[in-house]
Write a structure and sequence with these properties.
By secondary structure, the chain is an all-alpha fold. It is 77% helix and 0% strand. Helix 1 runs antiparallel to helix 2 (34-55), helix 1 (5-29) runs parallel beside helix 3 and helix 2 (34-55) runs antiparallel to helix 3 (65-96).
Amino acid sequence: MEMTRDALRNVVQELLNDVIEQGFHHLVNHPQQGDELNKIIKDATDELNYQLLKVDSHNHHVNSPGLARHYDEISRDTQKKSLDLLSRLQKVQITDNPRLKRV
């Protein structure tokens, strides 16, 4: 199934806004970790803006294989970056909660 521009924009926004929201939630409850959390939130916001700009940054014709590849690449990149950011966030959360640390 081909992804449309609007569907891709929604996926990008959902993935990265999830990181931003989780970061803010943790920041409110654990302000002592503000430096690292603010960096994660900023990186997620920057990535969101970058990927949204990238969606329309192409010279492909509508419904072309090149456009489909372009959209697939953005989707993969966004998923990877989102997982990387969530991993960083999880590491911050674990350092604050000894019960989450592995034995």
